[in-house]
Amino acid sequence: MTRDPLIALRPWESPEVTSWGRLPMCAVDRRSGAMPLDGRWRFQLLPAPDSPVTGDWASQHVPGAWTLQDTWDLPQYTNVRMPFDTFPPAVPAADPTGVYERDVRIPAAWAGRRIVLQVGAAESVLLVHVDGRPVGVSKDSHLAAEFDLSGVLRPGERSTLRLTVVKWSDATHLEDQDQWWHGGITRSVLLYTTDPLHLADVTVRARRSGELRVDCRVRHAAGALPEGWYISGEVDGRTLTQDEDFDRANAEDERVSAFLGEARLLTTVPEVRTWTAETPELYELTVRLHRADGTVADTSHHRVGFRDVEIVGRDLLVNGERVFIRGVNRHDFHPLTGRTVTYDDMRADLVVLKRFGFNAIRTAHYPNDPVLYDLADELGLYVVDEADIESHDHAHEIADDPRYLNAFVDRVSRMVLRDKNHPSIIVWSLGNESDYGANHDAAAGWLRRHDPTRPLQYEGAAKLDWADPGLASDIACPMYAPIEDCVAHALSGKQTKPLIQCEYSHAMGNSNGTLADHWAAIEATPGLQGGFIWEFWDHGILQRVSDGRPAGRAGAGLHGNGVAAPGHRWAYGGDFGETVHDGAFIADGVVLPDRTPKPVMYEHREIAAPLRVECYKHEGIVLRNHQHFRGLDWLTGRWELALADGRTLSAPAVLPDLRPGETAAVPLPFELPRDGGEAWLTLRVSTAEDLPWAPPGTEVCAPQVRLRLAPRTVAEPAADRPVQVDAEGLLVHPLLIAAPTLSLWRAPTDNDELGGLAPRWRAWGLDALVRKVVSVQRDASRVTVLAEYAGTVGVVRHRQVFTPVESGILVDEQAELPEEFDDVARVGSVFETVAGLDLLEWFGQGPWESYPDRSAGAPVGHHRVPVDELFTPYLRPQESGGRHGVRHFTLSGPDATGLGVVLDEPRQVSVTRYRAEDLTGAAHHDELKPRSGCVVHIDAAHRGLGTASCGPDTSSPYLVPPGVHRWSWTLRSL
Ligand code: GAL
Ligand code: MG
Questions:
Q1: What are the pLDDT digits (tens) for 575-587?
Q2: With 802 labelled, which of 15, 282, 424, 822 sits at a CA distance of 20 to 30 A?
Q3: Which residues line ligand 1 (CB under 6 A)?
């Protein structure tokens, strides 16, 4: 039996205990000037918190999860279900517990000062000992804990600091977010000192009128405050004045306290430059606490953004404007270090978001690393700051469990106390997927009193009834609501709150179909204001294939093209030997695990375009400034005219001077050539100046209009050349190693699998249709082949007519899908080429991957991409690499020989190194062997992608119906 009281009291199974010996959270940042304690610590991993600590020490890097640093405890992924089946607040007896130790020498110069230990984050319970003496306990894996160790650490002497981190606890039941389970100290540890007389908190309120109010709380380590202390402050060199009304009112009400000092400073900044996500203007504020003799006892620095947030009617307004929320959900994540992220990592995340048109982040589902908010202030992103509460598996039991009441209020209030001064935060969130109970209202009550300046949201309350989400939500913030439901709500006459989806458009695998339709509805419907895509990251962990271990921080590094380093793969649920897991559901972000943007990012960028080409009228091109707050002077443009005959003309664009929302007609920049066929005009818009998130010349959007339709194609005359087919009616061609056959199957996307489509397609036998030739007829040089493709429940009749024409062979196809095959993945032809054709050039949408319901961001033009770069390495191999609206293409080798295809109309085409069945059978990319030739699909119809892995499927215009499908194409040799 241990004699350590911290262990004996088993705080890890006491939800009422949220901390012991911990200092109140505040917004005074002590990171600069502190003594960092990051680096290597002695470490041992015990099987349970009450197991004896041995003399057997290894070491670990702090900050970092031990699950990624070569211990026996590996990462595990579960979504809703808990990794163990004990009921809250209990946890299993087997409970990995990391003991971290290091010696610290306290400088003699710290004598007489207050000494504070800050542990940035520990999962999930932190116990603190100094020289064997218990000094503190803290819970909440995503907020720092501070302990006043002034009486415990002795200046000039050496002490041993022990941080014990218990992995499973009552608090784990509140941290059941959909992510990897880890253990360890995941943010920095440091010691800082202050004068005994110190700033206990600073609250900044800065309004768009330029009014600035700074509230300071002052304490003294000894309790009673010395006489005569006072506060001063400056904002960008402008001195703030003491609010005498505040002092007088406090004095009259006898609120002046001997041990809690309160002071308020005021000023108004004239002609203030206001903060918005588009214009992230920050002012430097310095607050000083003085002793009676004028000397400075403490200083606090803040960056202030002057802005207002309010809800008026059903609109969320920033500085009076109804801004669109183009958001994404973001976890703290890195493929080598898990939840430990550096300044550079976070900056890189936000830079990617800014470059792709996002303007908002929801910190799903816990307060992110504090640096994130500094960066959001600086780069310009609105933030919904979310408390670390997700009791998903036991949501209903916990929401009203009074034993957890304290934890709810603790988690919400400490987040707000830490983050309240960030202008980027425009909304607070009570957490995620935790039902709705009295515990939420308790936290909401505290929050509304403490910070009346920001709205509050909570999906668990808002989804019960969008019209009346109770005390806990000012915003209707459902998740994955179908577009039609959102529009219907906005039109119902019952909407009372802004509708901003907290999660929508689930980005798992090849996904985000209908994103543009969402936005068309949002922009057209008053009451709809946007939402947060689920989510930013694909949480693949870099894993060595040889031994199945996480590569870790010293790992193989990241290549930056989405592909794991050789000998490695991106691990998802189940890959670390876990038996309880939720597979690839952890990989549902808009970037791959090395932050390579998935093609959906280009779709988003275009949807978010700050400058729109509205339409083409006789007077010219109408441009619209589609921003909320700024002009176009930060942008520069270039016109591009793509003609079907292969020409691309280009000319500089002069952007008009437009205020937000304004339009102007500009003349057509080119004399449209008479010939050349179909013509598309694109405005390539890029940054004109060096921005914190983009160098000049970074493309921001490429809006496009069609100037001329394709002329009706005139059939090529038949040529007198034989077409060769074999006894099975299969085309024989020197460039093809597999003749064109009918394909109704695509390697199921995650949406196809989890949305229940792929299981249906398999049941119909579409993955293994059996082809039987029915007849081969020759009529002069034309060959007609009839074939049947049998599934388990129906037969498709397929006709191919091969006609030699001047340029090559015209292939005219027809497939008749029986009624049973309602809603299939594709109807089209598939063939395989000889090796050596490694470059695809096409006229159509591109250059990036696009699908019928995700093609708004891929302008029509002439594109060329090496075949090996066409494919997107989605974590679980699946349909990938498609290009929408292809009119014609060539596949060529270095000597420019190869094959060319001209399509009857814009079609979905894909060229990859994999057959659909290669991809279908693989769980990871390292299992795949690229073929040397190309697998080419030409689809008469291709099903949209939708988002059915979590949320709505695609909508009806993007479905592939049964019945007759016809398509034709001409194959030629180059
Ligand atoms: C939501 C949840 C997220 C994530 C997502 C699916 O229900 O809030 O945390 O699980 O679904 O990927
Ligand atoms: Mg959940």
A1: 999 999 999 999 9
A2: 822
A3: 79, 177-178, 365, 432-433, 479, 503, 506, 534, 585, 588, 950
